[in-house]
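ok here's Core-binding (CB) domain-containing protein, seq below lol
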Amino acid sequence: MVNERGTARSCELCLGWSVMYWSRVCVACKAWKKAYPARGRCPRCRHEAHLNTDGLCKPCLQAIRIEDDAEWALGLDDARPRDIQLLVGAYRDHTTKARPLVRGSSTGARVQQEWWRKLKQQREAAIEQPTVLEPGTRGQIPLFAMERRLTEATVSALVGRSVAGWQAARQAIAQMATEHGLSSGWMYKVSEMVRLALAVREAEGAERLPEAMLRDLLANGDAVRQILLWAGLLDEAPEPMRFSRARQPMRTPYLTAPAPLPPRLPRQCRDCHAWIPAGRRAGFVCDPCRHWRERPGRGRCCRCGRDGLAVRDGRCRGCHPYRLLDQAHPASMRATQLVFALPMGKGGPFEAFPVGDDETPDYVKQRPALHIGRGQEPLFTVRRDWTPVLARLRNMPSGEPPLSGPARRLVREFARHRPDERPEYRKNIRTLTILLYWLGAEAALFERDVYDLARIETNLAAKPVCQFLRACGLLVEDPELHRDADLAWIESALAALPEQVANEVGIWVKARREEGRREGEPRGYDGIRRYLMLLLPALTAWTTTADVTSLRQITPDHIDEAVEGMTGYARRGLATALRSLFRALKRERIIFRNPAHGLPVGDLKGLPKPIPSDLLMGLLDQARTPLGRLVVALAAIHALPGYEIRTLHTAGLDLSRGTLEVRRGLLRHTLYLEELTHQLAADWTNYRHQRWSASTNPHLLVSQKTAVDPDHPAVSLGTLSGALPRGLTLSGLRQDRILNEAAETADPLRLMRLFGITEQTAMRYVTAAHPERTAKMTR
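and the structure came out like this:
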């Protein structure tokens, strides 16, 4: 009798179901947790649990003894992981306790011998007798129902195997053969199918075989059904089932009342390729083609080229309705529409398709052959070649190509959203016009088609058109186009290397992304790409000239040859990349020793240099735009680097308080704007609002492209550098400002607080400004 306070639930540790009282852990697991408090990953079930001295969890120790799992009892290296069994209820059995595996002692030696004997028996049984329709537990309900594929090999594997219920079925076979005078060959064939059905019954763990499973038999399903019924081994379906597709002949006497044939499935007409609906008359020729065949004369169709068909005027029935269209528009290649042979309710011949009158607008004559309708999906997706389309447009009369009404409305809407585009430079509108002319505006367009079209000519653009179509719900996105550009470059670079070397470098990439054996902060693909660009010349030289097939063959001599003759930043970058590569491979246990372990990276010997005064004179006057003047102020006064200037946000600018917030990862650095920078920031915000009043880009600095881009990208470094006067760079202005402050104060702490730089960087600038104060004195 279960206590009313007890609740049936799953234990949080062993996942077994039992009745628990005021706890979520069963009694056995409480004692196990107290005895073995250390947690880890069980190698057998791959779950986090409390592990004993054998390194196994409690459910796995129980399963090893219940299942006689000799591989894991002996701790073999090639033992594969196992699944955890579902335990419902609990019973006391000394043989299933989660006791440690005995190894090493005198008693352990005897136990080990017993496990080795079981392992030998299990492996011999697996080799001698392959598992085919292995008997299941009687009465057990399967969790998933899977379709069985029975073949002649399955029948051969059952030869000589004892099958439960065979004696009763054998008597039923002999009785049926005697009663109806059937041959010994029939008895042999039916006996094979009956044994196969009984083996399926054992594999399902059922007392009686469900009648629906007889569909999996190779043949004689109706005879096997009758025999199993006589033997009491069949679970009948609510309605009698039929397993033969053909009508049973009169020589099948054991079927007195056969079940009706199943309804016929849809099929295609052999002559016109029209689809015949389900439930129609038998055969593979539709009714119209049956009447068409009554006409005299067979031959080769002049349109589709098929031979042996009933033709009229040189055309078969499927091509005959297109005779007027072919005369009006001759073409070398012709196609026919997909047809469903449905009753139309009227008789007579199949009328020809009308050609049209002379008042058809020019759009119909110049439009493509077919436009996909709304909701219609293509049968096959083939990558388009847009070169013939552009050649066709060049041969057309001057002016825009003819568009349908919905297409013209889309083009006008797209032009309304881009008022700043110059009339002579309408590559975005031209791209959309070509797409809608050729593909129509009724169905969604594939993103791959837009980029393939824009790749042919420089006067076509893809990104703005895709953004507009995506907003209108008319774009089918391609996941390959939205992959990380750095990741795509890395994969293409690895594909150019030999397979073994590419696999090893790929392991280094995963380790940099912290997908290896150790966890840490993942690195970005942009940084990995920079390292790989430095490594590629050395890797290519090793694999081509040094005949290196694996990075395990690399020695310190190869490393020295790779960096030999290099100086400055080039040598420092390559040395850092080589040390990163081989350190990660050593950590992942791909190589045995690190050949770049003692490789010196070196230190930067150069010091920051000031900008000549003649270049700084009239710096703000040389900047012609509000964007250029604000960039000069941020770099030359506040010493912001270029990547921070381009990522400034409008929300971080507070003109009322005179502050500008700079985002540096999770940290924030606040700039206090003096009067000049404050006025330049105000001028820029006014200019931006007047020119791009509808822009929703959150970045403070925008350009003509980024202001109206729905993806809200940051302005590029090239745009910022182009706004500066000639001869100046962002990094040069920043270094000159910090160096000037270091010369005035000689205080590294002030530099760190004012510009947000590290202590090493601050000391470098103080050393450059005051070399006499930081020179090393001789002892």
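fwiw Confidence is low (pLDDT under 50) at residues 357-365. kinda neat tbh
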